[in-house]
Amino acid sequence: MSLAHDETAHPTETETCSLTGLIRAIADRAASAESDPEGLSWEMAWLAEAGLTQACLPRAYGGESLAIDAARVEDLFSILRRLGRANLSVARLFEGHVNAVRLVDLYGAPAVQESVFGAVGQGALMGVWGADGPRPLGYERNGVGLVLNGEKLFASGLGQVGYAVVTLREAGSGEGPAELAVIDVSDPVRQDAELWTASGMRATASGRFRFDGLRIEADHRLGQAGDYQREPHFEGGVWRYCAAHLGGAEALVDLWRDALSSRGRLDDPLQLTRLGRAAALCRAMAACIRAAAQQVETCDPGSESAVEIAVADVLLARQFTEEACVEVLALAEKSLGTMAHGIGSPIERVRRDLSLFIRQAAPDAKLIRAARIMDRHWAQAW
């Protein structure tokens, strides 16, 4: 990775190798990251220097199983929460890296794991790109390899992600369950970040990647068709981005309180009531997400009912997290008035990023699924 920056303007490697130093450096650069032509290149380099991207790997590949081991759930929860508090865009990319490492660990052939995890061990970042464009990603067989065609949209981390786990289908196979493959996506010619015009999460560079004519080995497919949606690793993993949302909400409350303090308004009972309500919501989110994470990561994968109930708890935690974040946003906006909308301010940036990040795909379908699971297992789940 080429980092064409003024070294004197950024923390040294030593300063970012501790988690506290890393979080501070990411938070200090959050305001400039979304307008920097290099995007999150510094932040991703710091994650590698601190060993966080490598820590996600299985121990057999030199990692600490941070992304895999159920015993590391509390550690992963804390890291995602703290990254979300520092910069939600960084938390988004790191969560995608965690997800991708898990999928390759679960379904990758040994040779693919050796190759991809070896690159991660050298600092490469991974991601998961599932959203198809107008031309869904597919492949045709060509001897012992595959030739790809199509594109992915909302591909977070363009220019930063080296390997992406993607969903794809064989040409002519119809609309059955998608397959997975892990692909080198470092070619800048295939990247188009200009399509990312959303007001929030700008620093994620979530644009389009074109796969037309790209050739890969057949064994870079992961597992079997339908494995991507296998539980508890699909919806069950939703708790990870909820932890990042929590961090974003806490960052907003911090900034909001500082703004009230600087204006001498912390003795106003109405303002304290709003601030207290927001703090209570953050505490409740933390407890809810942490409990759901522990349950889904430690459930018995051989018990269908245990897996279903754990997934339902995660989906309910997701629902509560979204609703709580919406209320925190509303409370902050009511409390601060136009200050919450001042372009270029930290409050405006965090408010903008959080309000977009919590809008995950098909929220109503997730809630309906959770309710149906609860109904099927009422005596056990309630």
What is the fold's blueprint, element by element?
Elements: H1 13-16, H2 19-33, H3 41-49, H4 52-55, H5 73-86, H6 88-107, H7 110-121, E1 125-129, E2 138-142, E3 145-149, E4 151-155, E5 161-170, E6 179-184, E7 191-192, E8 207-210, E9 215-217, E10 221-222, H8 238-262, H9 269-298, H10 304-336, H11 346-357, H12 363-376, H13 378-381
Parallel strand pairs: 1-5, 2-5
Antiparallel strand pairs: 2-3, 3-9, 4-8, 5-6, 6-10, 7-8
Keyphrases for this structure?
382 residues, seven-stranded mixed β-sheet, globular, disordered N terminus
Characterise the protein shown here.
By secondary structure, the chain is α+β, with helices and mostly antiparallel strands. The chain contains 13 helices and ten strands. The protein has helices at 13-16, 19-33, 41-49, 52-55, 73-86, 88-107, 110-121, 238-262, 269-298, 304-336, 346-357, 363-376, 378-381, and strands at 125-129, 138-142, 145-149, 151-155, 161-170, 179-184, 191-192, 207-210, 215-217, 221-222. The strands form two sheets. Strands 1, 2, 3, 5, 6, 9 and 10 form a seven-stranded mixed beta sheet that branches. The termini are far apart. The model is unreliable at 1-9 (pLDDT under 50).
